[in-house]
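Exercise 7.
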Amino acid sequence: MRVRSCRQRLASYIVAPLAASVVFGATSAAATGSPAAADPLKGSWETRAVPVSLVRTALLRAHYTDADVTTFLTAFHFTKSKNLRFAVKFYREPSGEPFVLQRFFDASKPTPDGDHGPYKLMPNHRFSVTSADPSVNKYRYVFSYQRSGIQLKLHFVSGTNPGLSAKDLRFDKVVQTAFTASSYTRR
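Solution. The predicted structure, written as tokens, is:
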């Protein structure tokens, strides 16, 4: 099977794997004995309508070029959009494995379906997201997070995907960084 880039995976709906959050003063899994109780990410999170200009500024501050931003906006048909929304849902599969569903879309249009993949909490308020089908995609994205009450802020740390060209991997990183342009609120 051929490895697909974010652009290819998301052609029919706009999404990308991601996840995030930490509860200040949260109880550890060791203290409760329950992995679900210790997961500060579990639940649904969504941004407000984020002006495209703010997304552009966030990407430029992350050292992407104007051309990178234009490619991102064009690939997802956002060139005429005024506002975008980002949504992420952390949940458990029937097997108990933690998964994340991620979506982003023009705020004036209906919410599309999303893409999903397993995530893993890591030390130092970080988490990683990997492909739901590693035989097709071998990506791994790492995010840091901060959570205060019902507010969640993400930061894209790193991304790898050995099956992609440098150009396609850079595009995937732009997509992941766009998810960090605004804070999320728990729904």
